[in-house]
Automatic annotation (TrEMBL):
Residue ranges crossing the lipid bilayer per the database entry: 32-55, 152-175, 226-248, 260-278, 293-315
Compartments, record wording: Cell membrane
SUPFAM superfamilies for this protein: Calcium ATPase, transmembrane domain M
Protein's membrane topology: Multi-pass membrane protein
The name this protein goes by in its record: Sodium/potassium-transporting ATPase subunit alpha-1
Length: 345
């Protein structure tokens, strides 16, 4: 019926928005960590500001929007989940407790919260975080599923964000090491604050090799390109990992959405044009001399992304299973003269 279809569509929209957020937030840590390393270690620029803008407005935008066309992963699973905001005795009690806390803020005539005006409105907004009720409301027990919850933040920031960051940093280091530059070399050069420009003086590496300014720029740009491409490749794997909730991310459902492949193709076009087109190299701190061989470690970490997501689903399925509504066996009605059409029961 139309009611059932409406409920299904609403649940699908909620699920896809949550998947999109889970995917989008995952690239935040790989963007932040390089900036911290550049400042604290220090290292030369690992990921430039323009590269970050290109990531956010380029392939990440395409990929996150592809979830708008994501079909149902499992209709049975989607429709048998408990409601997101179920009405239970506990949820009613929580609402009553919250209403009691804000009894002084409610207009007795209208039953609605009193609204402040003018400067009083801004003062109340500033004071709100310093009130007891604010923190009680913030830490209130929640019944049902939230759009942004602890599980989503843990997956995106801590778990998948760490895997993607490690994969990109390892590849970045391997590219530098292929030119004889150890991490201590790179750190010492960045600390001296006079290298990694075309006019920089020559530098003698720990292995005895001497590199001039142009070589320093080239090697650093190649490593930066590898990190930039790494975010695209690993996030492409994460795109499929974020699709999975009821099943492992290897089923047919993961490949039903054509928009996924259109977005990956569009993102790859932007990513590799910037990385391998000389006119863009000087602008985005990339280098067309980066060998495609360095994509291989990134694909290896991409497989780790899918394996980790699969193991995570299996572990959660065992130790924290999803709450489902019990199946209803029939209408549970007693036979009447109308249902039996006058026959004896």
């Amino acid at each position: 019926s139309s009611t059932i279809n409406g409920v299904e569509e609403g649940r699908l929209i909620f699920a896809n928005i949550k998947k999109s957020i889970r995917y989008t937030v995952s690239h935040s840590i790989p963007e932040v960590i390089p900036q911290l390393l550049t400042i604290l270690v220090p290292f030369p620029t690992i990921l430039g500001a323009l590269q970050i803008i290109l990531i956010d407005l380029g392939f990440e935008l395409f990929n996150s929007l592809s979830f708008a066309w994501e079909p149902v992963e499992s209709r049975d699973g989607l429709m048998t989940e408990i409601p997101r905001n179920p009405v239970t005795s506990r949820s009613i009690q929580i609402l009553r407790e919250r209403k009691a806390r804000h009894s002084n803020d409610i207009d007795p005539e209208t039953g609605e919260i009193k609204e402040s005006h003018g400067i009083q409105k801004y003062l109340s907004t500033i004071k709100k975080p310093f009130t007891k009720n604010f923190w009680l409301d913030l830490t209130d027990e929640t019944i049902g599923e939230k759009l942004i919850d602890g599980d989503l933040l843990m997956y995106s920031y801590v778990e998948m964000g760490s895997i993607i960051t490690i994969g990109c940093l390892v590849t970045w280091g391997l590219v530098l090491n292929s030119h004889g530059m150890s991490l201590s070399d790179v750190r010492n050069m960045a600390k001296a604050n006079k290298y990694f420009t075309d006019s920089s003086p020559d530098y003698k590496l720990n292995n005895g090799t001497i590199i001039n300014g142009k070589q320093q720029v080239q090697y650093s740009s190649e490593a930066s390109s590898a990190y930039y491409i790494g975010i695209f490749i690993l996030q492409s794997f994460n795109l499929f990992a974020c699709k999975a909730k009821y099943y492992l991310p290897f089923g047919k459902f993961a490949f039903k959405n054509k928009a996924t492949f259109y977005s990956i193709f569009g993102g790859a076009t932007v990513c590799f044009i910037v990385a391998y087109t000389p006119p863009f190299n000087s602008i985005f701190n990339t280098s067309y001399t980066l060998s495609p061989v360095w994509w291989l470690p990134l694909f290896g970490f991409g497989i780790i992304v899918l394996l980790y997501a699969s193991i995570r689903i299996l572990v959660l399925r065992k130790y924290r299973p999803m709450k489902m509504n019990p199946e209803i066996a029939g209408l549970q009605m007693y036979p009447t003269i109308w249902s039996t059409r006058g026959s004896k029961v």
